Every structure is written in structure tokens, then in C-alpha cells.
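anyone else get weird line breaks when pasting these?? whatever heres mine. first is seq + C-alpha cells for prot A
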Amino acid sequence: MADEVRANAKAFRLENTITGLVSVPLLVITSDDGLAPAAKALVAGIEAKGGKKIARKPDRARKRDHYVGSPVYTSKMISSHFQDHYERGL
């Protein structure tokens, strides 16, 4: 599997999925671990192609062992995101 990933690294890049993600509701959770710029670039690419079903939520966790915050908080955030999209008919 690792050989396949290395051999197809360019094809497997996340930005190659932008066209397919334009119509998909997304919840983008970022942290202060240095990866937020890549997530922001992905969101910008989706929005540039007309994607509007994106909610952004920065994770306030400051410790690396709390990468996405508490599971309960994350679960509630995801539920409220998709409930909002459902109510708005997105």
C-alpha cells in the first residue's frame, strides 16, 4: 500500500478532489498544528468553483494530545452543522 501511495502521490493529492466536493456539505475543523493553511486552501478552491456548503470551525485545543477537542464537543458541532444544512435545504 505504501508503494501505491508513493507511486500515485500526485494523483492522490487532496486538491484533486475539489470538483467532486463542490456539492458536498463539508465541516472543516482546523487546529493550531500548522495544517490550517492547507485546509483553508482547499476551502478556497471549493468556493472558487461555486461550493457554498462549507462550515468552518477552528478547534480551540492548544495541546497536541487534544487534537480535535473533546469528542462530545466535536460530535455536537457536527450534528448542529448538518442540522442547519438540513433546515436550509442544502
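and prot B, same format (seq, then C-alpha cells)
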Amino acid sequence: MNSKSVFFRMRKIRSYWKEVGQLISTMRAYPNVDFRYFLQPTKKLPSELIPLFPTPTKDQFMISLGEQDAKNLVAAGPNARNLVPPSNLE
């Protein structure tokens, strides 16, 4: 691994924990809400610096991926509480 790959790996990890941190904050703010599902894409979404010009191909890919991910998630059962250790919710 070189420093560039370590840097990009660090950014990816930081981004993930930023998302999970928002989930934890929301769960703390609403302790009586039953958070059942946490959905995130299973494949990398097409991205652009400025996504002003969507294409039917990209849109269809994202819609199909979202539908399939949602079906798989519901079939697997609730997962949101499994992502966050109970100690982080206190």
C-alpha cells in the first residue's frame, strides 16, 4: 500500500462512520422509535462531480439496484439495531 491508497481508504472509512454516526444520533434522539432497517447500496453508484445530466441508463441502474437491495434487506429481516452497539445508544 502506498500513501495515496491509504489516504483514499481513510476517506472511505471516515465517510462510512459519518453515515453511521448520523444513524446513532437519530437513534439516540428518538429512543422509542423502532428503527428496523438501514439501507445502503450494495454496489457503487455512478457519480459525477456535478450530477446535472442524468442518463436513462444510470437512472435505471440505480432504480434497479435500490429495488433489489430493498427486497434483499426485507427478506433478511431487521438490521438497524445490529449496526449500532448498544453502548453507543446510551
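btw re prot B: The mean pLDDT is 82. Residues 69 and 75 are 10 Å apart (CA to CA).
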